[in-house]
Design brief:
Elements (H helix, E strand, L loop, with lengths): L1 H17 L3 H8 L4 H4 L15 H4 L7 H45 L11 H15 L12 H23 L12 H22 L9
């Protein structure tokens, strides 16, 4: 599943690049928060329905640097997460991350007409699950909070701080990355933290299985 998502994302970028349609795709298939409050914003224009744009925007990237960094993180973390969750649960994680990323971006900037593109929100969910599954840092229970809850809280706090720092550092844009969608990264990561345990239960609900 990881390889398939990466291949489709790469192919979509190459097609848009070769046809010179990246800017048009960003407008018609990117996630635009203002479309949620005004679904008729694109009436008369052949655009992706607003409820599908959290997925279509993951296939659109601003340039090679944007695409390359996202695919690097997807392949590195995704393959190891998929080994544990298997294909179905991994796809749920990725899609949920994409929608959670757009949801928080909309909550922060509901009137924004700027298209958000890229798969980093969905990939942030994968990174969160990777961090939970493979974290080596021991954490002890503190008061009413279990070690698992504290691990989730520490990871969430650390990721939010990092994203805010990135947002400040790249406020004016950074090459073809443009302005970083910090809220989307946070939304996807939080979704990954919240979904890891339910997806593990779903994956192993019929008992232990061999991982292949």
């Amino acid at each position: 599943m990881t390889s398939s998502i990466a291949a489709i994302t790469f192919a979509a970028f190459v097609i848009l690049l070769l046809t010179g349609q990246i800017d048009n795709a960003a407008l018609l298939g990117g996630f635009i928060p203002a479309r949620i409050a005004d679904p008729g914003l694109f009436d008369g224009v052949l655009a992706v329905p607003e409820w599908l744009t959290p997925l279509s925007c993951t296939l659109i990237h601003a340039g090679w640097l944007h695409l390359g960094f996202n695919l690097l993180m997807l392949v590195f973390c995704g393959r190891q997460v998929e080994q544990v969750l298997h294909k179905g649960a991994f796809l749920v994680l990725y899609v949920a991350g994409a929608y959670a990323a757009c949801a928080l971006q909309w909550a922060i900037q509901p009137a924004s007409a700027n298209p958000m593109v890229g798969a980093s929100g969905a990939i942030s969910a994968v990174i969160a699950t990777y961090a939970l599954l493979y974290s080596q840092q021991p954490i002890r229970r503190m008061g009413p909070f279990s070690a698992n809850v504290l691990r989730v809280l520490w990871l969430a706090a650390g990721w939010i701080v990092i994203q805010l720092m990135i947002g400040v550092a790249t406020a004016g844009g950074m090459g073809d990355l443009g302005q970083i969608a910090v809220a989307a990264h946070i939304g996807g990561f939080l979704a990954g933290l919240l979904l890891t345990r339910p997806l593990l239960w779903w994956r192993f609900r019929k008992g232990p299985r061999s991982l292949v």
